[in-house]
Design a protein that fits this description.
Blueprint: E1 4-7, E2 18-21, E3 27-29, E4 34-42, E5 46-52, E6 57-67, E7 74-75, E8 80-84, E9 95-102, E10 105-107
C-alpha cells in the first residue's frame, strides 16, 4: 500500500494496529488467503472489513471509504478488499488502521506489509 506509517503497534497504549496514512481511495489488499467474516460500518472504525485466515489469524482493516467484498467471500493474498478512507469517529484523516490477531492475541502486522 502506498503511504507511510503514522502510528505503530503499541499494545501498552491500547493501539493494537499499524496506521498507514494514504490518499483516500487507495486499494486495500488482504494480507493473505481467507474468507471475509465481517464487512460493514462500525462506530469508531467506520467502514471495516475482517478476513479469517488459516492457523488462527484474523486481519481487520478499518476507516475505509468503500468495501469491495461481502461476508462469506473468499479472497486471495493481495486481492483488493476495500478502498482506504476516513470513515468512523476515531480518525483524523485518510488512513488504513490494520489489526492482526492470532488465536485472540494481537500481533504486530508491520511484517506483513509489502512495498509496492
Amino acid at each position: 500500500m502506498a503511504g507511510f506509517a503514522t502510528r505503530g503497534f503499541a499494545p501498552e497504549e491500547g493501539h493494537y494496529a499499524v496506521d498507514i496514512a494514504t490518499a483516500a481511495g487507495t486499494p486495500v489488499r488482504s494480507i493473505g488467503d481467507g474468507y471475509v467474516v465481517m464487512a460493514g460500518r462500525t462506530k469508531g472504525g467506520g467502514q471495516a472489513i475482517a478476513v479469517q485466515h488459516a492457523q488462527g489469524y484474523l486481519s481487520f482493516y478499518k476507516h475505509n471509504r468503500r468495501l469491495s467484498k461481502d461476508v462469506g467471500d473468499r479472497v486471495e493474498a493481495r486481492e483488493v478488499i476495500a478502498e482506504s478512507g476516513n470513515s468512523g469517529e476515531m480518525t483524523t484523516g485518510p488512513h488504513l488502521h490494520m489489526e492482526l490477531w492470532r488465536d485472540g492475541l494481537a500481533q504486530n502486522p508491520a511484517a506483513y506489509f509489502i512495498e509496492e
